[in-house]
User: Fold this.
Amino acid sequence: MKNNLEDTLAHFGEVEINVPMAKMTTLHIGGIAHYVVNPADMVSLDGLMRLIHSENIPYKVFGKGSNLLCGDQTFDGIIINLERHFNNRYFQDRMVTAEAGCSIIALAYDAMRQGLSGLEFASGIPGTVGGSVYMNAGAYKSSISEIIDSVLVYRDEKFEWISCDECDFAYRTSIFQRHPDWIVVAAKMELQEGDEEDIRTLMTNRRERRMSSQPLDFPSAGSVFRNPMDIPAWKLIEGIGYRGKRIGDIVVSEKHVNFIVNMGHGTAADYIQLTDEIMQKVKDEYNIDLHMEVEKFNWQ
Ligand SMILES: Cc1cc2nc3c(=O)[nH]c(=O)nc-3n(C[C@H](O)[C@H](O)[C@H](O)COP(=O)(O)OP(=O)(O)OC[C@H]3O[C@@H](n4cnc5c(N)ncnc54)[C@H](O)[C@@H]3O)c2cc1C
Assistant:
């Protein structure tokens, strides 16, 4: 990379140098990222992306890093973070338009206060709107795809709204996973009128359920494996006797076996050794292929 890259990047927003990715992920694992850029607005994002394309610089968009397992080595590229400046949202009748960096939990609470129902499922998902669209995040048999009207995408150096159909949503997948060069800039979601107190009660009950069933007191990236068609992943992990299994500081949670937690100084290498073992044993004992829901980033 050019020596004056830092100065050039500063045209597009605040630049942070040599940031541990462990600080940008809920799992608290990951090596150093050479640059983190917080684009100031859409013009700056466009400028940054044009620079990245012309100089062929590796990059990755991060939300809250709540679904990412970053490798232990240095990332010699740019992390683009939209949380700082892409967090506007507004309500118009039953429609909410939110920029990609908005917290989906904060949005669910905003909707509740407006007496709008549809985002209750998201009230315990610690991600951004952008990450949730990319992942088609969901819970309690609902997912974001059910309320998406359209998504503002940056692709081929242009901003355009695409319809929900074009996002090709399915269980924890979307078209964005097949096009890692596209950036979710904002999403329009259609909600239903509801009763604020009923929505609040549902969200409170679900929060309590999560607190009693998930190891929220330790760093994690949420559910590690996607649920296969006929059997939940936790039953398979339980079945191979891996509840509480530990490698270094990386542990299969006793509280929720499809969560793997970092007890302090866990490494990506240990995490992957543990998940590889689980996948191999599940294959050997049940002939089922488990697939990771947590995404690996910056692996050789
Ligand atoms: C305690 C805990 C509980 C969880 N519970 C749930 C749950 O119930 N249901 C569920 O579905 N998930 C759950 N998750 C996982 C995670 O919170 C979701 O997948 C969330 O939607 C990820 O959002 P993020 O902003 O953190 O994305 P990140 O982890 O930062 O990124 C995930 C992927 O999205 C991409 N991405 C992020 N922003 C953009 C953007 N603007 N444009 C394009 N690509 C983008 C990234 O490049 C990356 O590939 C949980 C995680 C934790 C830690």
About this structure: The chain has a mean pLDDT of 96. The chain has three domains: 5-81, 89-212, 233-297. The domain at 233-297 is CATH 3.90.78.10 (Uridine Diphospho-n-acetylenolpyruvylglucosamine Reductase; domain 1).
